[in-house]
Write a structure and sequence with these properties.
The protein is α/β, with parallel strands linked by helices. It has two domains: 122 residues, Rossmann fold, CATH 3.40.50; 104 residues, OB fold (Dihydrolipoamide Acetyltransferase, E2P). Helices cover 30% and strands 29% of the residues. It contains seven helices and 15 strands. It has a five-stranded parallel beta sheet, sandwiched between helices. GO terms for molecular function: DNA binding; phosphorelay response regulator activity. This is Response regulator.
Length: 246
């Protein structure tokens, strides 16, 4: 995978290149210290992947991506600051690595690249292709920030999404953070084979269902592992049965 490292700190570039030596599939084809250096290299070398710093002299990492004409490479952001993480994932980043980059976290990021490539090879299409409408599945890892707390969580661990006005509450482990997003917008991003819209307020992870019971007016009551009880509305119960029936 042809890779460019873009970072204004020479020591950071050197350290990342050293760490990437552990991954034979990653071929570092060049380095750049800022957007002015990087843009012509991206046009000429057509890299598959960018390791991209955010704060740089001149254009920052986000502005660099917006300046790319044609197909945008996959992106893994590298930065010393965590406050940009939500915006990074709005740019469909594969991952967001905090400096100093640790080998274990870098390995997780490379594994995600391989998962994306496997999906591309098996479907014949690239689900990311620079679009903000990428469908997220159980193996996708997302950044969640609520106040001063931050998590990187695999969506497969999220058992329930609950609408709270303009926010959505995520339920995973013993955590219940809020994110600024509507449930409808979130539903458009989630793989419907794993995440099911149970009613106006809830999306459930089908793999977490422990028990299903008949409920009022033709609806269903599902119990998730952990004890959460969610009503599936009558209309959604029809879809639910169709989805899970042989």
């Amino acid at each position: 995978m042809k890779t460019l490292i873009i970072d204004d700190e020479r020591l950071a570039r050197n350290e990342l290149r050293r760490l990437l030596d552990n991954f034979p599939k990653i071929q570092v084809i060049g380095e750049a210290a800022d957007a002015n250096e990087a843009l012509p290299m991206i046009e000429e070398l057509e890299p598959d992947l960018l390791f991209l710093d955010i704060q740089m002299p001149g254009k920052n990492g986000f502005e660099l991506l917006q300046s790319i004409e044609g197909k945008t490479p996959e992106v893994i952001f590298t930065t010393a600051y965590d406050e940009y993480a939500i915006k990074a994932f709005e740019f469909n980043a594969l991952d967001y690595l905090l400096k100093p980059v640790e080998l274990a976290r870098l390995s997780d990021a490379i594994n995600r690249i391989e998962e994306e490539q496997h999906t591309t090879d098996s479907t014949g299409t690239n689900p990311t292709n620079g679009s903000l409408s990428k469908v997220l599945g159980e193996n996708d890892q997302v950044f969640v920030k609520d106040g001063e707390k931050c998590w990187f969580v695999k969506l497969g661990k999220v058992r329930l999404f609950e609408s709270m006005g303009n926010y959505v509450r995520l339920y995973f482990d013993d955590q219940k953070p809020l994110v600024l997003k509507s449930l409808n917008a979130l539903e458009d991003r989630l793989n419907p084979s794993t995440f099911f819209r149970a009613n106006r307020k809830h999306i459930i992870n089908l793999q977490w269902i422990e028990k299903i019971e008949p409920w009022f007016s033709g609806g269903l009551l599902v119990t998730l592992r952990g004890g959460d009880k969610i009503e599936i509305s009558r209309r959604q119960a029809i879809r639910f049965k169709d989805l899970l029936s042989l």
